[in-house]
Specification:
The complex is a heterodimer of chains A (421) and B (227). Chain A contains 15 helices and ten strands. With 421 residues, chain A is of the alpha+beta class. In chain A, strands 1, 2, 3, 4, 5, 6, 7, 8, 9 and 10 form a ten-stranded mixed beta sheet that branches. In chain A, β6 and β7 form a beta hairpin. About 3% of the residues of chain A have low confidence. Chain B is α/β, with parallel strands linked by helices and 227 residues long. Chain B has six helices and ten strands, in the order βββαββαβαααβαβββ. In chain B, β9 and β10 form a beta hairpin. Classes of the chains: A alpha+beta (421), B alpha/beta (227). At the A-B interface, α1, α12, α13 and α15 of A face α2 and α3 of B.
Chain lengths: 421, 227
């Protein structure tokens, strides 16, 4: 029977609490306005933060968490002089050979060379990035084919005059960008063999400011070796052999483990000249997660401040309610309520206020997030945590703000309470 | 042989702190209530009637002396123990009815059950029985604001007797009512008394004493029996 008594007690408690709050609807609504704003702010912050995190992580993941990217870095002239003196040739095919044998954890390698040249048929607003790469480069970035095909080994070995277009470039070229059409790059004609899906790689920037981002949609891929035809036609292809090397390992754990080894191999090969940088997507992702956590914590704390302000508002209202209902406290004590029963009664009212404020806040926050997503174009993600955290915080704030008024009510002398006007 | 008293005040004094000293409102009162009695206490305002009633109802404790309820000294019990005694032994009726304005008649009468250990399945039948006794079973879902003064007091009486207390304490129950309604309420108390309830009714109206089995007067904190 004890559980029946407990249920009946709680029903009675919340029945009275809701009756009392509904009796003063406007006052109850105004008192929870702070909580609604606070919860909405925390919810919107968390959902926007979660959306941003997912977008960044998806970008990093697309680089391949089991990959290590080595990129050429333009170094200052004095150091370049020193580099020349030390015999570094920048990223070179000898690096590929050295890296191949560096560790059994390495399963594949891909390389890329950036080419400065003109492409006919494009407006001035479009700046395509022409690159010569190994066929493995496209497969290691997991690029999807929209039309035609990806690059083949034979394309590289036979230095075929073909090209793979990014989606945006193909669209810009119109009929000229269709598979099977000829495209003039520099002074040469290349056959369009395929079109790959547009995908933004990442927004991360390294410490020295070198952007990692590559817009696949804006790229034109040539088979490595075929770019030499462009060189013959006096178009700049740069001094260094390579601009980027991707090292693929068995797993992301392996990628993390062999970074020092790759670093050491390149240090020896480049005579300690830092004319390259290592980008480890796995480490980038961990870093991004940590940054996101701090970002979320700060924004949640800011949202939490409005929740605390809301809690103070609720405390104020409850204190006013208690002084209004002093006689009721006396009546309850007269019919057998203990001090704890009175405390429970007013705590129930505080919790009911803040929980309803919390639920309304989630609803308002959801609408705010959707509006931001629509008008600002930010990505927003709602997870169970983005709902539970603000809701739970509002309940805790409500509980804390209700404690003092509830204890004050419980300590009232029943005789004095009954005598009150 | 006379039965054991239901409640006894033994040499009870009550003091209240006031600015610059202490005000004694009860002066060493000795008073016993026997089961089945209908006692009317009359006296002027400030004579100590309500204080006596509050001590009898375990809402207040004596500054000196002992208060025995159902054979137990309750002078030094904890808040929880006193609340338990109020649940099981006492029913209060007040001058201002003291109903919860946002609760229905049912919720008001059932209020004492919320703090009792009575099986919830028995709440409704007992509330209906109490309301039938005061003639208001048809007003179950009405709010107090929809009732007349006399009806509100009858709801308050139903709330006082719903847990079948051994002692019903009424503090000026007719103070806010017209003479006709007052008479109805007093008739109701007489009926309750006839059905076995022990009642202490405090009033300043000496005419009310005619309905009682025992009449006591209070003056300046001192009690005297009217024979």
């Amino acid at each position: 029977m004890s559980h029946l008594l407990a249920i009946a007690y709680l029903r009675g408690l919340y029945g009275i609490a809701s009756g009392s709050l509904l009796r003063h609807r406007l006052r109850s609504f105004l008192s929870i306005l702070g909580i609604i704003c606070g919860v909405a702010a925390v919810f919107a912050t968390l959902s926007i933060g979660e959306g941003a995190k997912r977008e960044v992580l998806a970008g990093i993941r697309q680089l391949g968490l089991d990959n290590i990217i080595v990129r050429r870095v333009q170094i200052a002239v004095p150091q370049g002089g020193a580099a020349g003196a030390n015999g570094s040739r920048g990223l070179h095919f000898t690096d590929i050979e050295l890296l191949k044998g560096a560790s059994p954890a390495i399963v594949n390698l891909a390389y890329l060379k950036e080419i400065q040249t003109d492409v006919s048929g494009l407006s001035r607003e479009v700046t395509p990035q022409v690159v010569a790469c190994s066929p493995s480069y496209l497969s290691m970035l997991r690029l999807g084919v929209l039309r035609g095909r990806l690059m083949l080994r034979s394309d590289e070995s036979q230095k075929k005059m073909i090209c793979i277009l990014g989606e945006d470039i193909a669209r810009e070229l119109g009929s000229q960008g269709n598979v099977g059409e000829w495209l003039r790059i520099g002074e040469q004609l290349f056959l369009v063999a395929g079109i790959v899906k547009s995908a933004r790689l990442t927004h991360s920037k390294e410490k020295n400011g070198v952007a990692l981002a590559r817009e696949i949609g804006q790229m034109i891929f040539l088979p490595f070796g075929a770019h030499q035809y462009l060189k013959q036609s006096n178009i700049s292809t740069g001094d260094s052999d390579l601009d980027e090397v991707i090292v693929k390992t068995h797993s992301e754990q392996d990628a993390g483990k062999i970074v020092p080894l790759i670093q050491r191999t390149l240090e020896i090969s480049h005579q300690t000249v830092r004319d390259y940088q290592l980008i480890v997507p796995w480490q980038l992702m961990n870093q991004a997660r940590k940054t996101q956590r701090i970002f979320n914590l700060i924004l949640t704390a800011i949202g939490g401040i409005s929740l605390i302000v809301g809690g103070i508002g609720i405390m104020n209202v409850l204190l006013a309610v208690i002084s209004e209902r002093t006689r009721e406290i006396g009546i309850r004590r007269a019919v057998g309520a203990t001090r704890n029963d009175i405390v429970a009664q007013f705590l129930a009212e505080a919790l009911l206020l803040t929980t309803s404020g919390g639920v309304a806040g989630i609803f308002v926050g959801f609408i705010c997030s959707l509006s931001i997503a629509r008008f600002a174009g930010w990505s927003v993600a709602v997870t169970p945590l983005t709902i539970v955290i603000p809701l739970l915080t509002s309940v805790v704030v409500g509980g804390c703000s209700g404690v003092y008024p509830a204890i004050k009510a419980g300590r009232m002398d029943p005789v004095q309470a009954l005598r009150s006007a | 042989m006379r039965p054991h008293p239901l409640a006894s005040l033994l040499n009870v004094a009550k003091d209240y702190p006031i600015e610059g000293g202490i005000l004694r409102v009860l002066h060493h009162v000795d008073f016993s209530v026997y089961p089945g009695e209908f006692i009317v206490i009359t006296g002027a305002s400030g004579s100590g009637k309500s204080t006596l009633l509050h001590i009898c109802g375990c809402l207040d404790s004596p500054s000196e002396g002992k208060y025995m309820l159902a054979g137990k000294d309750v002078s030094h019990l904890t808040d929880r123990q006193l609340a338990g005694l109020r649940q099981n032994y006492i029913g209060f009726v007040f001058q201002d009815f003291n109903l919860l304005p946002y609760g229905s008649v049912y919720e008001n009468v059932a209020l004492p059950f919320l703090y009792s250990k009575v099986d919830p399945s028995k709440w409704k039948p007992q509330v209906l029985a109490a309301l039938t006794e005061v003639g208001l079973s048809h007003r179950l879902n009405h709010r107090p604001s929809a009732l007349s003064g006399g009806e509100r007091q009858r709801v308050a009486i139903a709330r006082a007797v719903v847990c079948n207390p051994q002692l019903v304490l009424a503090d000026e129950p007719t103070g806010n009512l017209d003479s006709v309604t007052s008479q109805e309420i007093l008739t109701l108390f007489s009926r309750l008394h006839e059905s076995g309830a022990t009642i202490i009714l405090v009033t300043h109206d000496h005419n009310v004493a005619k309905t009682a089995s025992r009449h006591v007067t209070m003056k300046d904190g001192l009690l005297s029996e009217v024979l």
